[in-house]
Every structure is written in structure tokens, then in C-alpha cells.
Amino acid sequence: LQALLGLFITQNPVLAVCSNTAICDYITGGGTSTINNNYVGCGNTIEITLDCGNLLHIFLPNEGVWHEPNNWSSGLIPDCDGVAIIPNGSECVVQPDSIARTNFLTVQPNAELFVALTAKLIVYSQD
């Protein structure tokens, strides 16, 4: 068999899941790739690498609460080692008396993140 010379995943604005085993193994193994202009989760090599390690958490519903695992692409609630993304058009709520944590947070244009008065949102690092 001939070795794969490169991986190209581009120009697909609805493609959101790229973290299958073959792609994860190729990227994390140092394979050459060009990845851009896809939906959140497949937007670039960093997003795919994070998703491969269950560290990328994309909020899925149009509206819902932070602390529901089924509301996140990873099936896990973001924590101090992950990256949380609230995509365009979504509305996410951090409920009263709760603490939401993430290492990095992106709230895309036309998305909303509401933090109740008695809740906390802790973002450990931010660019």
C-alpha cells in the first residue's frame, strides 16, 4: 500500500464531525493536512485534535443549559482542560447556583451565553 501524502478537508460549511479514528490517528501522528472553511469542530487541525481527545465541546442545541452533557458534542460538560464553543445562533444558559468551567471559551457571532446572577463562569485561559 502507498502511504497517504496529505489530508484535505476544506470548503464544507456543514461538516462538523471529523474526529473519526483514521483522521485522529493521521493528524496526531504528524500527518500533513489542510483543513479549513468547514463547520465548527472541523474548522482546523486544532479543533479536530481537541475533539479527538474529547477536549472540544461544541454546544449543540439552539437553546439549552450548560450543565447537560447531551447538549455538548463530546457528551461531556466542559471542564478546566477543555475548549467550549457556543456556535452562531445558539443560546446557552449557566443556571442559578452553578459553576461552569472551561479552559477556553468562544461565543460566536449571533450566539448568546447567559450566566445567572447566582452562577459563576470560570474561564482559566483566554487569548
Structural write-up:
By secondary structure, this protein is mainly beta. 13% of the residues lie in helices and 33% in strands. The protein contains two helices and ten strands. The chain has helices at residues 21-28, 45-52; strands at residues 7-12, 33-38, 56-58, 63-65, 83-86, 91-94, 99-102, 104-107, 112-115, 120-123. The protein has a three-stranded parallel sheet with strand order 3-5-8. Strand 1 (7-12), helix 1 and strand 2 form a beta-alpha-beta unit. The chain is elongated and about 55 Å long. The N and C termini lie far apart (43 Å). The model has no long low-confidence stretch (mean pLDDT 88).
Present the secondary structure layout.
Layout: E1 7-12, H1 21-28, E2 33-38, H2 45-52, E3 56-58, E4 63-65, E5 83-86, E6 91-94, E7 99-102, E8 104-107, E9 112-115, E10 120-123
Parallel strand pairs: 1-2, 3-5, 4-6, 5-8, 6-9, 7-10
Secondary-structure element sequence? EHEHEEEEEEEE
Please estimate the helix content: 10-25%
Strand content: 25-35%
Shape: elongated
Cα(first) to Cα(last) distance is 43 Å
| Protein structure class | mainly beta
Task: Summarize the biggest pleated sheet.
Answer: 3 strands, parallel
Tally of DSSP β-strands: 10
How many DSSP helices?
2
Q: Strand arrangement, largest sheet? A: 3-5-8
